[in-house]
Specification:
Number of helices: 4
CATH topology of the largest domain: Glutaredoxin
CATH class of the largest domain: Alpha Beta
Distance between the termini: 31 Å
Strand order of the largest sheet: 1-4-11-10-9-8
Number of strands: 25
Helix content: under 10%
Shape: elongated
Number of domains: 3
Order of helices and strands: EEEEEEEEEEEEEEEEEEEEEHEHEHEEH
CATH superfamily of the largest domain: Glutaredoxin
CATH architecture of the largest domain: 3-Layer(aba) Sandwich
Radius of gyration: 27 Å
Length: about 425
């Protein structure tokens, strides 16, 4: 799901996407196994999370807020509460694994509302001053310094954060902590930047623009990176992001290329990979919204043009959305055909552009390249000299590019 490249807020609801939105505090995981050799070796990879204040250089990441729920009977009663308050109700805000920030609201002798939160997380609210709200658009806001102890590898670690309380409507509090974490995930020569808050949601910079433009739900989604597929776990106590490789077959060199059938953009033709046996297919994933990807698309176009008229090679590009492509193609023309849709990106485990696959005459992936490689032409020509063998040889009715799409069958109506 894409998000606007600006900072905005999301109030978390338990029904949203079927998830229960409480902070994600995953257990630890240890690295295992080495590189795969023809089989999908399962491994765990760990990446350090760098803590930052929430508003620091995190453009595009929405602000995730939770609602504060008050009740007359707390799950755990504080050891002490302030004197002189009436109509007291209690609340707990999840902070870390097994730890919550206790709070209460009530009214003083003059009938004025009072809020108190446990700033040192010691279970005693009598030694904490009342919260002071300041008028800010669009309501009242309070910033509270919170200190707490978190156990890391069995040892206590004292940490600090800021609890932000927002009252947009009288009597309705929302909150977030002024914490965010960032890291770069690196695998198989590919990289993607990730950010998160204290929730089981990640934000990805898929266009290398410095803006977090995609929401990723670790509980429901699998991340494709470097030809492998991973589930993600967040280990807040150790400040680690863990990639756990799944047993899904890699989409990488030495493995079969997943078959697909897709409409060719701007035509009523279709392209089916399994019908291209006996030919080389160069399949790339790019985005006109990514400046670096656009530059690499120009190089890819030159590569495709160098094979113009060669019936043994197909050049095909995949893009997620038609609208940016239509705008881009008003001022550009490429020698390769486009297919539109995000499903192929998921099938091939591509999360961010620019990724290119060199697929041989038998439908095997010869090479997966992150970014444009000047060696692709040499490798494609070397592959063309190899015979696919009689079992895979097919009638050669022409390579596939933007100029000769009419050689392929029309989509059945």
């Amino acid at each position: 799901m894409s998000i606007r490249a600006c900072c905005f807020r999301i109030v978390l609801l338990s029904a949203l996407c079927g998830l229960s939105f409480v902070p994600a505090f995953a257990g630890t995981a240890s690295p295992s196994s080495g590189p795969s050799t023809g089989q999908a070796a399962v491994r765990n990879l760990e990446f350090p999370l760098i803590r930052r204040p929430l508003g620091t250089n995190l453009a595009g990441m929405p602000l995730l807020e939770g609602g504060v729920t008050f009740s007359k009977e707390p799950a755990v009663r504080p050891s002490r509460i302030p004197d002189g308050l009436s109509g007291v109700e209690f609340a707990e805000i999840p902070l870390a694994e097994g730890l919550k920030v206790a709070g209460l609201r009530g009214r003083d002798a003059a009938g004025r509302p009072v809020h108190v939160f446990d700033r040192d997380t010691d279970g005693d609210l009598a030694d904490d001053p009342p919260v002071e709200f300041l008028a800010e658009n669009p309501g009242r806001v309070a910033r509270i310094a919170i200190s707490y102890t978190e156990r890391v590898a069995g040892r206590p670690v004292r940490r600090e954060t800021s609890l932000i309380l927002i009252e947009r409507k009288e009597g309705k509090l929302e909150y977030h902590f002024d914490d965010a974490w960032e890291t770069d995930l690196l695998f198989g020569g590919e990289r993607i930047s990730v950010a998160l808050q204290r929730w089981p949601i990640l934000f990805l910079d898929t266009k290398y623009s410095g803006l977090y433009d995609k929401i990723f739900y670790p509980a429901k989604e699998i991340l494709g990176l470097g030809g492998r597929f991973f589930r993600l776990e967040i280990d807040f106590p150790r400040e680690k992001l863990i990639l756990k490789e799944t047993d899904k077959r890699p989409v990488d060199a030495g493995f079969p290329a997943p078959d697909f059938e897709a409409a060719v953009w701007g035509t009523n033709r279709i392209f089916k990979l399994s019908e291209q046996r006996g030919k080389i297919t160069v399949l790339t994933f790019w985005s006109p919204l990514c400046p670096g990807s656009k530059a690499e698309a120009v190089l890819y176009d030159r590569l495709a043009a160098s094979f113009s008229g060669d019936a043994r090679v197909n050049f095909v590009a995949s893009i997620t959305d038609a609208a940016p492509l239509e705008a881009y193609m008003k001022d550009h023309r490429h020698s390769f055909a486009h297919i539109v849709g995000s499903s192929l990106w998921e099938t091939y485990g591509v999360t961010a552009p620019f990724v290119t696959f060199l697929i041989d005459q038998r439908g095997q992936i010869v090479k997966r390249v992150f970014g444009f490689s000047p060696d692709l032409e040499k490798e494609a020509r070397a592959q063309m000299k190899k015979s696919p063998g009689p079992a895979e040889e097919r009638e050669r009715d022409g390579g596939f590019c933007a100029d000769d799409a009419d050689r392929f069958p029309k989509r059945a109506k």
